[in-house]
Amino acid sequence: MTRYIIRRLLQFIPVILISTLIVYALVFAIPGDPIRALAGDRPMSDAVRETLREQYNLDDPFLIQYFKYIWGIVTALDFGSTFNGRPVTDIIQQRLPVTATLALVTLVIQTLMGIIAGILAALYRDRFFDRFVQVSTVAMVALPTLVIGFLLQLIFGLNLGWFPIAGVNNGVSSYILPALTMAAVSTGILARLVRSELLDSLKSDYVRTATAKGMKRSRVITRHGLRNSLIPAVTFIGADLASMLGGSIIVETIFNLPGLGQQVFASIQGQEGTVVVGIVTLFVLFFVVINLIVDLLYGLLDPRIRYE
Amino acid sequence: MTQSQTPAGFTPGTRPGEVPLLEVKDLQVEFRTKAGVAKAINGLNFSLHAGETLAILGESGSGKSVTAQTIMGILDMPPGKIAGGEIRYRGEDLLSMDEESRRKLRGVKIAMIFQDALSSLNPVLPVGWQIAEMFRVHRGLKRKEAKVKAVEMMQRVGIPGAEERAGDFPHQFSGGMRQRIMIAMAIALDPDVLIADEPTTALDVTVQAQVMRLLKDLQTEFNMGLILITHDLGVVADVADKIAVMYSGRVMEAADVYEIYGRPGHPYTQGLLNSIPRIDDEGGRLRAISGLPPSLTDMPPGCPFNPRCEFATDRCRTERPELRPVAEGHLSACHYAEDVYAGTATRTRRPSPTGAGMIDVSEEAPQ
């Protein structure tokens, strides 16, 4: 088990190196001069431009630039800074809490709604509630995030006035509408996943055995049926959490949340390679760590899985 | 509806003046399918006493497993439907009982062992926990006390190192050990009736014998009535007291084991016994019963076996034979039971060269 974890942690190194290299290359490939973009319409003297180019290693060949960047991270935990001189770590520290809060609120909403709806749909198979879940989940998955976001703003923000429409100045309630928007697709998928897994499980031989043992229906479902059917749901929720921590450009833009998604978008536009690479590296790190946690959790839920 | 009620006293296995442990009377079970109503069980009768082993013998689709599930009350309804009849446990009708009282008998007084122990045990729960659950739920024991009981049961069914292995999961055991765990779970609360549905079919031949021996020993020890559902004539010969041969959801013949093997009173039973390959046969082909069982949605009129029977007459094609005695304690549902029993029945179909009706592979093979 410990050896398995160590091996997985070592595997992180090439994954992160390769992913950052790719992102670095992509940012490098964006046409245009970042310094000129920074200056905008204002005139800039050649001396200033040269100094800036020097400072950000912009005249070096691509691989040298990349190497200097990685060297800075490894030796001094220096993730670089923006053209304004602000450290990237500083930006992440400021932006991450917003994205993380949104991700967690979304996670709670979609897990609760998705699993409960899935269970009820399976238990009342082909009845009204099941049909309702089937139809509404299709709608949730099919409707564009944009449309759902605007609808929620219109109904719960403007007409009913229950939740703020934009910004992060009202504590958790600021996050309710964006989280609902972000949760829509995953809630739909999760509800369907849990429904079909639970139906399969309830048809299985071991559930029949539990009934033959004289267990109450409620115990048969919770102790024998549900546990097995939730294993795929855990994998899905894990992967989803990882992707949410990367920030959502669309949702953060609709609800004007100053999170990582907005920042990445702005940085790409401003050709600030270091910021983009820094945030994406963080995103990759979240992804691999959460995947490792999910894999370990999987082993706890299903004893047939062994780590070597 | 045609009733196949047998006269009182002639229900297979009835002991005069004694309430049987389990009595099935004119049981009818149907399945609603897209192809129509499939009549899986059509008027089934049998009874079982303490300490007795009744083997229900039949090929796939004859209604053996449906019978077991109906008795246990674990039949999927719908599509299954009990269309009539009674199942009496110590004289009390299970089918008219409310679900909660029935649940309290299930696993406690009437327990069941399934064919595939790997899929029938919960893969994510330790085996000790699964056995202990019986004591915790039905006896209200604490977790620790139940665990001790579970280990005792595991020792009783011959699992080595029971104490250490109680925390293991089903996939960590061999097939034979898994079936022993199923058995431990089923007999945990000392049931009166144990139903074993093909308990050894999924096991190696050497392990089969051990598991059957264990079942037989436990039956004697606990004085259980054992219903052994199987298609394996070899298994039945060793352990059964009585045999009921099922075909198309009906009992075709019922008698004690020596009678059935020695002097079968039904052409179907004869065909089954003839189909056992013999070591002293000089080459030749396997003597299978020709044809296939009829579709349950489209039963032939008359005797369900008539399309495959080598003694069938016009009477067999129109009038359904009732289960009736041909000898003391020997019942057969054949119009010519006496002749078949005496070995004097007249063949109406030309028997194939190697004996009874058979599948001739060479004729069906493409040129």
Q: Would you write up a description of this structure?
A:
Chain A starts with a helix and ends in a 7-residue tail after the last helix. Helices cover 77% and strands 0% of the residues of chain A. Chain A has a domain at 89-240: MetI-like (MetI-like fold). Chain A has 308 residues and is mostly helical. Chain B has 367 residues and is of the alpha/beta class. Chain B has two domains: 22-240, P-loop containing nucleotide triphosphate hydrolases (Rossmann fold), CATH 3.40.50; 241-277 and 288-351, no CATH class. Helix content of chain B is 32%, strand content 21%. Chain B has helices spanning 64-72, 99-105, 117-120, 127-139, 143-156, 162-165, 175-187, 205-222, 233-239, 257-262, 267-274, 314-318, 337-342, 361-364, and strands at residues 22-33, 36-48, 53-57, 80-89, 92-93, 110-113, 193-197, 225-230, 242-247, 250-256, 324-327, 330-332. Chain B has an eight-stranded mixed β-sheet, with helices on both faces. Chain B has a four-stranded antiparallel β-sheet with strand order 2-1-4-5, covered by helices on one side. In chain B, helix 4 (127-139) crosses helix 5. Chain A binds chain B through residues 204-206, 208-216, 219, 223-224, 227-228, 301-304, and chain B through 72, 74, 103-108, 111-112, 114, 116, 119-126, 133-134, 137-138, 169, 171, 182, 185. Chain A: The chain crosses the membrane at residues 12-30, 102-123, 135-155, 175-194, 229-255, 275-301.
Question: Helices and strands in order, then pairings?
Answer:
The complex is a heterodimer of chains A (308) and B (367).
Chain A: H1 2-29, H2 34-39, H3 46-55, H4 62-76, H5 88-123, H6 128-142, H7 145-159, H8 173-202, H9 205-212, H10 217-229, H11 231-245, H12 249-254, H13 260-269, H14 273-301
Helix pairs in contact in A: 1-14, 5-6, 5-8, 5-11, 5-14, 6-8, 7-8, 8-10, 8-11, 9-10, 11-14, 13-14
Chain B: E1 22-33, E2 36-48, E3 53-57, H1 64-72, E4 80-89, E5 92-93, H2 99-105, E6 110-113, H3 117-120, H4 127-139, H5 143-156, H6 162-165, H7 175-187, E7 193-197, H8 205-222, E8 225-230, H9 233-239, E9 242-247, E10 250-256, H10 257-262, H11 267-274, H12 314-318, E11 324-327, E12 330-332, H13 337-342, H14 361-364
Parallel strand pairs in B: 3-8, 3-9, 6-7, 7-8
Antiparallel strand pairs in B: 1-2, 1-4, 4-5, 9-10, 10-12, 11-12
Helix pairs in contact in B: 4-5, 4-7, 5-7, 7-8
